[in-house]
Write a structure and sequence with these properties.
Blueprint: H1 2-29, H2 32-42, H3 61-69, H4 73-88, H5 92-100, H6 114-125, H7 141-144, H8 146-182, H9 185-193, H10 198-204, H11 206-229, H12 247-253, H13 258-261, H14 264-267, H15 276-283, H16 300-314, E1 316-317, E2 322-323, H17 346-352, H18 354-364, H19 374-378, H20 395-404, H21 412-417, H22 419-428, H23 446-449
Antiparallel strand pairs: 1-2
Length: 451
């Protein structure tokens, strides 16, 4: 009995040691899949696995610090949680790394638990196999076979047209033969008395001729006038740019706010073309395209090549993570270009008129509503791979907007500033409830847009 109890206790101790050892091993090794999520959330702004970004590549970092500095995972835990404190303690290897990377201070991550850090290190040691990359958007199966079908249809149409043309020629020849056979001496005499010149025809039917000429003159004048009125209107214009920039990827897929790049649209008259430094705010650490969306006809290599054009323009050396000082100007082609005699202030529309414009547009387009004021004029830019002029941008187009857009009277400034005008319009237009549109507050005055 005593022997059994003794062996029982030894068995429990062995099982306990085995479980604790397993737990210890798991805690040290970590979970690479969870580590991948934590790595993407906390580390990718400055690090990549296989190349230097702002900081060094992190693949195999556990083995590397052991070889270079003779330190272990515990040191990495201290470095990740508070590298500043570790350097302040006089740690030699920590200060060597700080000097090596131009004294660029790493962020502290006290919020990460030991388990989180173990998971991240497990991911850097043994990253899981990447999931298959989504292929470029392809046409549906029905469309894939459309090309051969179209060729067959085209051939049938061409053959049919040739057959019809041949039939018509044959009919004309036969008719001519019949006419010659049927002509009598009387018909010959009549043909000699028929009108043979345009002047004779005009003399006979001059009233009809004058009427037709008048109609033709009116149509020609209208055509010239219509052509003149559309000079400078380039709706649908979408030029090729020196660097391919997809608004669908940036504003659509990645939800980047318009004003992050076009910051002066809110605070200035002109919405400027962003400088290349604005691009580098993100692309300093994004050297290749890993998004899910790929435009038909494009591939990952194409997007990576366009990013390299940004680096060439700014003189950025991705390997050394520093600027070379050799820059190249980018000659963008301007799309929206108002004439010099037209005054248009972006900030006035983006700030003061934001809600009023959105409400007016959505009221007129219930099936095509917008959520950002920019889309009222520039169209749904977040769906465009290549930006184009979405509207006419003519004087009549602007006037129509001013006549139909109701001023936002819930705005505290408008409510106070136009208080008397609002009361006056309520009496003047009782059926409309005294609604104030932009034209009622001077939106049609010439001097507002032409100065």
């Amino acid at each position: 009995m005593i022997s059994w109890r003794k062996h029982y206790k030894q068995t429990l101790i062995a099982i306990g040691l085995l479980l604790s050892t397993s737990a210890s091993i798991y805690g040290q090794d970590g979970d690479p899949k969870n580590g991948e999520k934590l790595f993407k959330a906390n580390c990718t702004a400055c690090h990549a696995l296989d190349k230097q970004v702002i900081g060094p590549p992190l693949k195999g970092v556990v083995e590397r610090v052991k070889t270079e500095g003779g330190v272990d995972k515990d040191w990495l835990h201290k470095w990740i949680k508070d590298n500043k404190a570790l350097r302040a303690s006089g740690d030699k290897y920590a200060n060597e790394i700080f000097e090596k990377f131009n004294k660029t201070e790493m962020l502290q991550f006290p919020n990460l638990t030991d388990k989180d850090i173990d998971d991240i290190l497990a991911f850097t040691t043994n990253p899981p196999a990447p999931e298959p990359e989504p292929t470029a958007t392809t046409a549906p199966a029905g469309e894939a076979t459309a090309a051969p079908a179209d060729k067959t249809t085209t051939s049938i149409v061409i053959i049919s047209l040739i057959a019809i043309a041949g039939l018509l020629v044959w009919i004309l020849i036969k008719l001519r033969q019949l006419v010659k056979l049927g002509q009598s001496e009387e018909l010959v005499g009549l043909n000699e008395t028929r009108v043979r010149s345009f002047s004779e025809i005009y003399e006979k039917y001059h009233y009809i001729g004058k009427g037709l000429l008048t109609i033709l003159a009116i149509l020609a004048a209208y055509g010239v006038w219509n052509w003149i009125m559309w000079i400078g209107v380039y709706k649908g214009y979408k030029p090729e740019q020196p660097i391919y920039f997809s608004h669908k990827i940036h504003a659509g897929e990645n939800k980047i706010d318009c004003q992050l790049c076009h910051s002066s649209a809110k605070y200035g008259k002109v919405s400027e073309i962003p400088s290349m430094n604005v691009c580098m705010n993100c692309h300093r650490t994004i050297s290749e395209y890993n998004g899910k969306y790929i435009e038909p006809g494009k591939d990952k290599a194409f997007y990576d090549g366009e990013i390299q054009k940004i680096y060439a323009a700014t003189g950025w050396n991705a390997e050394k993570q520093q600027y070379t000082g050799k820059t190249q100007p980018v000659e963008w082609t301007r799309i929206h270009n108002m004439p010099d005699f037209v005054y248009f202030n972006h900030s006035q529309h983006v700030v003061a008129g934001e809600q009023a414009i959105i409400n007016s547009f959505n009221k007129k387009n219930p099936n095509n509503k917008i959520d950002v004021v920019c889309k009222a004029c520039h169209g749904k830019i977040d769906t465009m791979n290549v930006v184009q002029m979405a509207n006419d941008f003519t004087m009549g187009w602007c006037i129509e907007c001013h006549r139909t857009t109701e001023v936002d009277m819930n705005n505290g400034y408008n409510k106070e500033y136009f208080k008397n005008l609002h009361e006056k319009l309520k009496k003047q237009y009782p059926k409309d409830g005294g609604k104030i549109t932009v034209d009622a507050i001077g939106g049609l005055e010439c001097g507002k847009c032409h100065y």
